[in-house]
Amino acid sequence: MSKKIVTVILAIVAALLICVTAMAYKSMDRQAPVISFPDGTAAYTDGETDDQLLQGVTAKDNKDGDVTKSLRVTSIIVAGDGKSVTVSYAAEDKSHNVATDKRTMTYSGAKTGVIESSGIQETAETADSSETESDTEPANSEETTSSAAQTESADQESAAAAQEEADIAALPAGTPSIRLTQHYVTLAKGSAFDYRTYIASLSDDTDSESTLWQHIDISGKPDMNTPGTYQVTYTVSDKNGNTSNGAVLNVTVQ
Q1: I need a surface site. Which of 40, 95, 151, 230 has the fewest CB within 10 A?
Q2: Neighbours of 221 (CB within 10 A)
Q3: Does domain 154-253 have CATH number 3.40.30.10?
Q4: pTM
Q5: CATH code given to domain 34-115
Q6: Nearest 5°: CA angle at 248, between 71 and 207?
Q7: What is the pLDDT of residue 180?
Q8: Which pLDDT score is estimated for 20?
Q9: CB 177 within 8 A of CB 203
Q10: pLDDT at 237
């Protein structure tokens, strides 16, 4: 077979491969679902569960249809004036396109900052936490130990949150940032670890939050079958190749 014929055959094969690749790319689902909220003004009450916050919220995808079951609450943040909260949601289709959206609810509680959902211990303190009752029984040694542990945990969380903000403030202009809902968590051996649960927000000067969700990098994932403490580092990059701060989640498996 002459070199000319071989060259022609190779050119035809290359052209076919390009066509197949182009068709496959065109058929890919790259559109995220759309999250919709019920009409009317909503109010947030301290202690509400994710199930309550998800009532009436739907997610529809152009290819997969109703993907409401994939909806989750990613963060609850009290406004600076303490009169409203912003609840963030995320939904995912079968092609792993992630949609994010937020809604603001009125609030008359006493918490500040980030409120953890799904019954996770809250990092925000209540305004009346200093109140005491004169007829309260003296705390036993177990209660004292537990209280000391909780105080230490709160101090660690506050320090980690402050460090995260400092790291974000030091980022060059145009760099994306990532914040976590918490920085210390204890999980049971054998349970599932969903890294998405701990992401509070993603932001960038050019890329949308839903786009950034596609470019999250996780290092140091915990071995959920081996007790121990693991450091999980989250980063996100934008379309210009800029990489965010490294947000650290300390996971204790026991």
Answers
A1: 40
A2: 12
A3: no
A4: 0.49
A5: 2.60.40.10
A6: 55
A7: 92
A8: 65
A9: yes
A10: 94
Indicate the Cα dihedral angle 56, 58, 178, 31, nearest 10°: -170
**Alpha helix positions (H), the chain:** 3-27, 50-53, 141-169, 209-212
Q: Quote the tokens at residue 67.
A: 């993907």
Q: Tokens for 37, please give them.
A: 């909220």
Q: Do domains 34-115 and 154-253 have the same CATH topology?
A: yes
SS3 string, the chain, reads CCHHHHHHHHHHHHHHHHHHHHHHHHHCCCCCCEEECCCCCCEECCCCCHHHHCCCCEEEECCCEECHHHCEEEEEEECCCCCEEEEEEEEECCCCCEEEEEEEEEECCCCCCEECCCCCCCCCCCCCCCCCCCCCCCCCHHHHHHHHHHHHHHHHHHHHHHHHHHHHHCCCCCCCEEEECCCEEEECCCCCCCHHHHEEEEECCCCCHHHHHHHEEEECCCCCCCCEEEEEEEEEECCCCCECCCEEEEEEEC
pLDDT mean across residues, the chain:
80
Which residues of the chain are under the pLDDT cut of 50? 118-137, 139
Backbone angles phi, psi at 124, to 5 degrees: -80, 145
- H or E element, residue 217: strand 216-219
The model's pLDDT over 168-226, given as tens digits with 9 standing for 90+, comes to 999 999 999 999 988 999 999 999 998 888 999 999 999 998 899 989 999 988 999 99
